[in-house]
Each structure stands twice: as structure tokens, then as C-alpha cells.
Design a protein that fits this description.
With 103 residues, this protein is mostly helical. Helices cover 38% and strands 9% of the residues. It has one domain. The protein has helices spanning 4-14, 39-45, 60-72, 84-87, 96-99, and strands at 24-26, 49-51, 76-78. The protein has a 3-stranded parallel beta sheet with strand order 1-2-3, with helices on one face.
Length: 103
């Protein structure tokens, strides 16, 4: 969702239902990875996390500022980390090594 009005609309539509809806706002303006979005206004409207969904932010300075800003307002960042320059022609076979999740 791009604006605090979008967040407010979803919150209103989800009110009084059996499940809680926790909206996520965009991390950067128009999901372009160039300039930070209006995260504070969206957070005031009810967004608890911010993401550019399946678009990676390749500018590390923008990502750093987004993470710092989100931390200051108590929000989470959901990042899609894919650098096409590194993964363009890569493939992985399914095997125990590629399917095990370790912490």
C-alpha cells in the first residue's frame, strides 16, 4: 500500500472480522528503490511493516536509511534480497542441502 489512506482503508474494511489484518506499507516511493516512502504517516495509520514486496533495493544507502528509519518508528522491514547481477543465470537442485532451514 502506497499511502496512509490505503492503510486506513484496509484497516476499516478488516474491522470486526475474525482475523486481525496487519497491513504492510511500501518501503520506497512507488517501490522504485530510490526514495523512502512516507513510512511514518503509514505507521500512524496502522502499518506495522514495510516492504517493496518482490523488488529488491539495490542501493545500499537507501536500504540503510530505510532500516534505520523503520527502527526509529518501531516498524519492521521485510526485504526481498535478490541481486539480478549475481543470480541471473543461477539454478539450484532440490536436495537435503537446499531444503534444510537452520538457525
Amino acid at each position: 500500500m502506497q499511502t496512509n489512506a490505503d492503510i486506513s482503508f484496509v484497516k476499516r474494511q478488516a474491522a470486526n472480522h475474525l482475523v486481525d489484518v496487519v497491513p504492510a506499507g511500501v518501503l520506497t516511493d512507488k517501490r522504485e528503490g530510490k526514495e523512502l516512502s512516507g513510512m511514518y504517516d503509514m505507521q500512524l495509520a496502522g502499518a506495522r511493516a514495510f516492504t517493496d514486496d518482490k523488488r529488491s533495493i539495490n542501493n545500499s544507502g537507501v536500504m540503510l536509511r530505510a532500516i534505520q528509519y523503520a527502527a526509529n518508528i518501531g516498524a519492521s522491514v521485510i526485504a526481498y534480497t535478490d541481486d539480478p547481477g549475481l543470480t541471473e543465470k543461477l539454478q539450484a537442485n532440490e536436495s537435503p542441502a537446499t531444503t534444510v532451514f537452520r538457525i
